[in-house]
Amino acid sequence: MESEMIAIQRRWLDVHFQYQQSNHEGDLIDWLQNGIDFDGIVLNAGGYTHTSVALRDTVEYVMEQGVPVVEVHISDIRTREPFRQHSLLTDVCALTIVGEGIKGYEKAVDYLINLPR
Q: How far is the CA of 87 from the CAs of 11, 17, 55, 67, 76, in angstroms?
């Protein structure tokens, strides 16, 4: 995954990327709340997609502050187990990309870069 992220960053040399990964819900929430100075956020929330109301509330807050959040899932969650098919985040994100593999991250960055400022 790290090599794919490096390749994505090389595609946009003039864009500053900051990466965050955590298995702890509170760490992700803190990072998102501090992200209100970002131009955009690409978020793969993993299992928290289906379970975390707190993460959903944070994404909604970040969006209200004018920071677009793009939800990305490498697999197509709509074709997975029934409990994984619903995202608590989709209705509060600017865009959701599912089932595009690693290319979903590139699509998310393209979307954010091309948003009118």
A: 29, 25, 11, 20, 11
Q: Which CATH code of 3.90.1150.10, 3.10.20.30, 3.90.1200.10, 3.40.50.9100 fits the domain covering 2-113?
A: 3.40.50.9100
Backbone angles phi, psi at 41, to 5 degrees: -135, 135
Tell me the pLDDT of the chain (117 aa) as tens digits.
Answer: 566 666 666 777 677 788 888 999 999 999 999 878 899 999 999 999 999 999 999 999 999 999 999 999 998 888 888 877 889 999 999 999 999 998 999 999 999 999 987
Structural Rg of the chain based on CA atoms: 14
Q: What's the pTM value of the predicted model, to 2 decimals?
A: 0.88
